[in-house]
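pls read this stuff:
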Amino acid sequence: MALVKIANRLVGPGQPCFIVAEIGINHNGSVEIAKKLIDLAVESGCDAVKFQKRTVEVVYTPEELAKPRENPFGPTNGDLKRGLEFGKEQYDEIDRYCREKGILWFASPWDEGSVDFLEQYDLPCYKIASASLTDNGLLRHIRSKGRPVILSTGMSTMEQIRHAVEFLGEKDLIILHCVSTYPSETEEINLSVISTLSNEFPNIPIGYSGHEIGVAMSLAAAVMGACVVERHITLEQAMWGSDQSASLAPKGIRMLARDIRRFEVAKGDGIKRVVETEIPIMKKLRRK
């Protein structure tokens, strides 16, 4: 299987799991909250943080933006979408801060203009959101930039995934199993799809993007071979925002990153041997 290089990291089988803390829109329009979430990702041992970028008037119709929706930024859905969207000044600061803290950052662009906007930051990769998997124009534009691509597969059939992979090509591509419910119920998660995708695309690293409550299923995904594990993070699940309840609070992301790394040590090399600390116990307990 081909490995994918993201900045200075190789991602794929035999490599440490690439742990992504998705900030998404959980910053609630505040760069200071975004910085606190970046700090949390760094302290937890995550490899990267991820944001979302949209050109609001392109991604949403005028009718959708005009819908009534009470929120901290105003009375309409448009007020909310614009309030949550970072511009150049904010991303300049995010880029500077992530470099200072020594953590990678990238984003899911939802339209071609957002791809062009993000190009100024020389990102290590792009993420294609599940909602964009069937957007051939966007996929083509992202691929034209020559960067590695992480493809999320929520709300998608295998036929649609095959089409996206054929469209993108297998080179420098990572696929994430995902279920686009917030939060996902246990019976919806279907972690066996990780194996299904691995068998379907043997030359592409497979990972997992989770929206469930808790850390157990994401840890299980790593145990089942996910080369990437991505989870939304939040300062507090009770904070205002649509994604907060499906996100990991500080204790959760710290525990997940810790336990994935502990599993990687415990997994070992598969060679059965008597370890040094077993020898005195062996001498004490064995009769023959």
Summary: The chain has one domain: 4-285. The two ends are 46 Å apart (CA to CA).
